[in-house]
Design brief:
Blueprint lengths: L38 H18 L3 H14 L4 H13 L3 H14 L5 H12 L3 H10 L6 H10 L3 H11 L7 H13 L3 H8 L5 H14 L7 H7 L37 H11 L60 H5 L19 E8 L2 H14 L9 E7 L2 E11 L1 H13 L5 E4 L4 E2 L5 H7 L2
Antiparallel strand pairs: 1-3, 1-4, 2-3, 2-5
Helix pairs in contact: 1-2, 1-3, 2-3, 3-4, 4-5, 5-6, 5-7, 5-12, 6-7, 7-8, 7-9, 8-9, 9-10, 10-11, 11-13
InterPro entries: SPOR-like_dom (IPR007730), SPOR-like_sf (IPR036680), TPR-like_helical_dom_sf (IPR011990), TPR_rpt (IPR019734)
Organism: hydrothermal vent metagenome
Protein name: SPOR domain-containing protein
Length: about 450
């Protein structure tokens, strides 16, 4: 996924997607505009505006030039520093972005996006120890979902799995969190568990595709490969941030000796090869592992001036707030739309038998989300029907599933021909929703829908 957010890692993300907090266009930056402002202030604001426009237009190199000019004129303005860091990042200049984020953190210690992005640039420049320290120091202001995946990328997938395993069981454990958890499991070498977790929110075909992508993603050739893949950027040779732009009071974030990538990616080579074999996808050969008794020699990250090797895009949970109608797998046979008068009329049961439901035209379902329980799914269904008239006459389906991450309730509508299901899902996505089409898999009428009819049918 070529996400414009530093973490969709979903980082949430990544994921993406992202996912994991992330880079924004900073459209809400309040630039100086008072009549009595100095000429330098006005020029700095103008340069920042040009930088934003260049980023929005996909011209990161021009954005860097304008953002550097803005910071040079107003070095103590945090928003200009953040804009510069984001511009460096979009341009694939990880060393410069790292220094810029560190400078911005000196001016603003409360913004959780800054230490998260700093940690990602530390990972991209090979400083895994520094990244883990940054994540730990600022753990109280970095979202758990983002911090967990960042920990896995920083070479500590075991701790990431422990953190995210708890996070997915909380009320806030959304699709982004689950997908970040799944990727962390994969990076820890637990591929079967990763597949099961990813399947909570994805259609079967998408799960296979994601496992194939992750098998490649888990074997980076250089320190910056994974972060570059997540952000959809092309690393370039980076001369570093101009010395004249550095703050007088530095943040104390120094460059650590770089260690081989494999030193912080335990248990991946064998598992990645196995998954690749199952998927029919070749995995790059693992780099030789140094003798355990010998200290690995530091090796600088070589950033080519040409685009880095293309990695399969890594897709994460939606970058937006994912309780948005999560793409989980819910299913249920649905009756065809009925006139409003019939829908609103009370359900009446004839003498001793229940009138059969209108036969479904097909066996395809549109899955709308996976939720903590039926009550949460019911609330989501209410929101969906209020904002999307096409669902008002449908009967919701639901089904509980249990995995190592916990129990989830899948919400869907179904009983359509494939073409009808595709059309309904496209319409829903056009209005900002998330869904996918799948075949019937044992779905039943949702617990809250037509309870009287369901009870009679069970006799």
């Amino acid at each position: 996924m070529k996400t414009r957010a530093i973490v969709t890692l979903g980082l949430g993300a990544l994921v993406a997607c992202g996912a994991l907090a992330g880079i924004t266009s900073h459209g809400g930056i309040a630039f100086a505009s008072a009549r009595d402002e100095s000429r330098a202030e006005r020029k700095a604001a103008a340069e920042a505006g040009k930088a934003q426009a260049a980023l929005a237009g996909g011209r990161p190199e021009q954005a860097v030039a304008h953002a550097e000019a803005a910071v040079g004129l107003r070095p103590q303005v945090t928003s200009f520093r953040v804009l510069l860091a984001n511009s460096y990042l979009r341009a694939g200049r990880f060393d410069s972005a790292r220094q810029a984020f560190a400078d911005a953190m000196t001016l603003d210690t409360s913004n959780g996006k800054l230490p998260l992005n700093l940690a990602l640039t530390q990972i991209a420049t090979g400083d895994w120890n520094g990244a883990r320290q940054t994540l730990d120091t600022h753990k109280d202001i970095i979202p758990v979902s983002d911090r967990g995946l960042a920990m896995a990328l920083a070479g500590d997938p075991s701790s990431a799995v422990e953190l995210l395993n708890a996070a997915v069981r909380t009320p806030g454990g959304d699709a982004k969190t689950r997908q970040n958890f799944a990727l962390s499991l994969a990076l820890a070498g637990r591929w079967q568990d990763a597949r099961m977790m990813a399947a909570v929110d994805l259609a079967p075909a998408e799960v296979d595709q994601r496992m194939t992508q992750w098998a490649t993603f888990a074997r980076p050739k250089s320190a910056y490969d994974q972060v570059a893949s997540l952000l959809g950027v092309k690393p370039v040779r980076d001369p570093g941030q101009p010395t004249a732009l550095a703050l007088n009071a530095t943040s104390g974030v120094g460059l650590a000796a770089l260690a081989p990538v494999d030193a912080f990616m335990p248990g991946q080579a064998e598992n990645a090869a196995k998954v690749a074999q199952e998927m029919g996808t070749p995995v790059p050969a693992a780099a030789p592992v140094p003798d355990a008794g010998a200290a690995p020699a530091p090796a600088p990250v070589e950033v080519a001036s040409t685009p880095a090797p293309a990695f399969a895009s890594v897709v994460f949970g939606p970058r937006e707030e994912v309780v948005q109608h999560l793409p989980a797998s819910a299913r249920e046979p649905v009756s065809r739309p009925a006139p409003a008068s019939e829908v609103s009329a009370p359900v009446r049961v004839a003498s001793a038998t229940v009138a059969p439901r209108t036969p479904a035209k097909g066996s395809f379902f549109v899955q709308l989300g996976a939720f903590e329980n039926a009550a949460v799914a019911k609330n989501a269904w209410t929101r969906v029907t209020r904002s999307n008239a096409s669902f008002a006459a449908q009967t919701p389906s639901g089904m509980s599933i249990t995995s190592k991450a916990g129990t989830f309730y899948r919400l869907s509508v179904g009983g359509f021909a494939r073409s009808e299901a595709d059309a309904l899902c496209r319409s829903y996505k056009a209005k900002g929703g998330n869904c996918f089409v799948r075949a019937h898999a044992g779905d039943q009428v949702a617990l809250w829908a037509h309870p009287a009819g369901r009870q009679m049918a069970s006799r």
